Amino acid sequence: MKKVLVISGHPDLENSTANKAIIESLTKKMPEITIHRLDKAIKNDNFDIEKEQEQLLQYDTYVFVSPFHWFYCSSLMKKWIDNVFSESFFQGGKIKGKNIVFSFTTGAPAEIYSHDGLLKHTVEELTLAISSIA
Predict the structure, then answer these.
(1) Cα distance between residue 52 and residue 94, in whole Å
(2) Measured on CA atoms in the order 115, 118, 119, 125, is the torsion positive or negative?
(3) Are 52 and 10 in contact, with CB atoms under 8 Å apart?
(4) Mean pLDDT, contiguous 10-residue spans, the chain (134 residues)
């Protein structure tokens, strides 16, 4: 069985509604998965990059769970991606062949995420930048 790492990018998971429910549901349905909470991993506004990269290498599938903030993932997850997915790590092919799944919560109704809606774009279009790391 493939090893799954769920990376929670919510900055305050205890006070979340949707992200907390997703994490709880995944844990209940798949007790063998590992949950990695970025809000607990960051210390003094920094991540232990080497430790984070080593952890990623232990898994076959990554599930990024994050609220959708200002047309991107949370600032916490963005900081983690910017730091952990360094040029040498990402372009060096260390995650080649890994499966990546994105789970975003919007807190807004689906109809605003359409060409006719308030934002004039779909969620898929608005998340193109982050989904390109897959």
Answers:
(1) 13
(2) negative
(3) no
(4) 92 94 96 97 96 95 92 91 84 84 89 92 85 70
Q: Is the pTM of this model over 0.70?
A: yes
Residue 59's CB is within 10 A of a number of other CB atoms, namely: 20
Catalogue the long-range contacts made by 40-49 (C-beta closer than 8 Å, 24 or more residues apart).
41/80, 42/76, 42/79, 42/80, 46/83, 47/79, 47/80, 47/83, 47/84, 49/83, 49/84, 49/86
Q: What are phi and psi of 32, to 5 degrees?
A: -80, -10
Select from 55, 62, 76 the least CA-distant residue to 10: 76
CA–CA distance, 101 with 73 (Å, rounded to integer): 13
Which H or E element spans position 23?
Answer: helix 18-29
37 vs 13: CA distance, rounded Å: 8
